[in-house]
């Protein structure tokens, strides 16, 4: 009698209905000097209502990622490959008109320089009111009253008076609050904030971050928070992705700060100053980000990676590792944790999340 054979099947991943799902995104700039591969095979998933941190050194592709999601890549750049699903809709297939509606109503972005986003010839009140008229169909008078309410909510002092100010008459912190008031008026499902507080002093920075957190919590708005500042990420975010040279190298729940696994992330975290602790020389990551033109087919961090030499890993300069899940909710792109034909991963992560050396 023929015995029945059960072929093990890969278990389907538990379906999480992500608001944003970026798959294999490549955004290149076709310059006279050559092709700059600013974003080069990026996968990113953002859940509904979560604050998602995107971190990495200057030039690693954070802003280009954000502009790609909004389909606002300037020439000579263009998205050359990949898919972006927003609320299950393939947004790279939308017409320009449909995309403009999406940007206006459901995705909005706060830039580092809020004054650049405000129109210098209109008062701040009228700019917020206009959004309310357009997106919530309010009449002029109600929109104005509601705009003052929103300016009050974002703690602009004397909102009725301030509403009549022009952008050049307010401070950077106030301009950023106006941008958040505009985001409240739009009530988007996804808010992308690109270094929203870099230009502000520490106290104002904390207040603006609180407003973003409240907005997300009260309205279940998903937020992509782009920042250099890992301290801000640890405070604000549910999940974090670390970018390096156009790709994600590590992605995890924010608790991973206690056990970063990628050598680049470890270097970034080791460079965070600890409040109250006087450290004259913080460890920094040696070397520079590689040239995004003519990127070799190898781990992009290889030239700077001490772990590669410590563990004598030849594969790092031969083949690029995948971003692989090595623990629930934790993915890493590094040969330290993955094997390949004749390469044995030197480290494993146990069920308890502890990194162990593999004894061969
Ligand atoms: N218009 C452009 N033309 C050519 N290259 C560009 C253009 N815009 C961006 N790039 C390149 O794309 C890469 C990624 O840039 P991006 O602005 O996304 O970096 P970033 O991570 O946001 O850095 P920062 O933290 O400094 O804001 C950089 O190498 C940059 O030089
Ligand atoms: S793959 Fe190799 S070079 Fe790259 S980060 Fe891991 S150990 Fe370092
Ligand atoms: Mg940027």
Which distinct ligands sit in these coordinates? adenosine-5'-triphosphate, iron/sulfur cluster, magnesium ion
Give the rounded overall mean pLDDT: 88
* Rg over C-alpha atoms, rounded to the nearest angstrom: 23 Å
What's the SSE pattern? EEEHEEHEHHHHHEHEHEEHHEEEE
Which percent bin holds the helix content? Answer: 25-40%
Spatial order of the strands in the main sheet? 6-7-8-3-9-10-12-11
User: How many β strands by DSSP?
Assistant: 14
Category from helices, strands and their pairing: alpha/beta
Strand content: 15-25%
Largest sheet: 8 strands, mixed
The rounded distance between the terminal residues' Cα atoms is 42 Å
Shape: elongated
- Could you list the spans in which at least 5 consecutive residues all have pLDDT below 50? 1-13
Number of helical stretches of at least 4 residues = 11
Explain what the structure shows:
The chain has helices at 62-69, 96-105, 114-117, 124-136, 140-153, 159-162, 172-186, 202-219, 230-236, 263-270, 306-310; strands at 20-31, 34-46, 51-55, 77-86, 89-90, 107-110, 190-194, 222-227, 239-244, 247-253, 324-327, 330-332, 347-349, 355-357. With 360 residues, the chain is α/β, with parallel strands linked by helices. The protein has a domain at 259-287 and 298-357. It has an 8-stranded mixed beta sheet with strand order 6-7-8-3-9-10-12-11, with helices on both faces. Strands 2-1-4-5 form a 4-stranded antiparallel beta sheet, with helices on one face. The protein has a two-stranded antiparallel sheet with strand order 13-14. Strand 4 and strand 5 (89-90) form a beta hairpin. The model is unreliable at 1-13 (pLDDT under 50). The protein binds adenosine-5'-triphosphate, iron/sulfur cluster (SF4) and magnesium ion (MG). Iron/sulfur cluster (SF4) is lined by residues 262-263, 299, 301-302, 305, 307-308, 313, 316, 321, 334-336.
């Amino acid at each position: 009698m023929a015995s029945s054979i059960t072929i093990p099947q890969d278990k389907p991943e538990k379906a999480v209905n992500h608001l944003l799902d970026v798959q294999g995104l490549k955004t290149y700039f076709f310059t006279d000097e050559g092709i700059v591969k600013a974003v080069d095979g990026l996968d990113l998933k953002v859940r509904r209502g979560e604050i998602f941190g995107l971190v990495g050194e200057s030039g690693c592709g954070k802003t280009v990622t954000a502009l790609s999601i909004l389909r606002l890549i300037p020439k000579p750049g263009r998205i050359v490959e990949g898919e972006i699903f927003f609320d299950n809709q393939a947004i790279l297939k939308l017409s320009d008109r449909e995309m403009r509606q999406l940007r206006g109503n459901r995705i909005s972005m706060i830039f580092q320089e809020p004054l650049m986003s405000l129109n210098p010839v209109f008062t701040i009140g009228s700019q917020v009111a206009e959004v309310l008229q357009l997106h919530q169909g309010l009449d002029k008078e109600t929109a104005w009253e509601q705009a003052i309410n929103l300016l009050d909510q974002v703690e602009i002092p004397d909102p009725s008076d301030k509403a009549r100010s022009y952008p050049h008459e307010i401070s950077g912190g106030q301009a950023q609050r106006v941008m958040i008031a505009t985001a409240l008026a739009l009530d988007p499902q996804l808010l992308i904030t690109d270094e929203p507080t870099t230009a502000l002093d520490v106290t104002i920075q904390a207040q603006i971050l609180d407003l973003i957190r409240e907005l997300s919590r009260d309205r279940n708005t998903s937020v992509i928070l782009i920042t250099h500042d890992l301290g801000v990420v640890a405070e604000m975010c549910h999940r974090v992705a670390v970018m390096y040279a156009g790709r994600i190298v590590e992605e995890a729940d924010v608790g991973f700060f206690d056990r970063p696994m990628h050598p680049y992330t470890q270097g970034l975290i080791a460079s965070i100053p600890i409040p109250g602790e006087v450290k004259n020389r913080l460890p920094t990551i040696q070397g520079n980000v590689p040239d995004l033109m003519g990127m070799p087919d190898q781990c992009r961090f290889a030239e700077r990676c001490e772990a590669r030499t410590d563990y004598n890993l030849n594969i790092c300069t031969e083949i690029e590792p995948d971003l692989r899940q090595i623990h629930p909710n934790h993915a890493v792109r590094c040969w330290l944790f993955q094997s390949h034909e004749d390469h044995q991963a030197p480290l494993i992560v146990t069920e308890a999340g502890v990194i162990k050396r593999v004894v061969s």
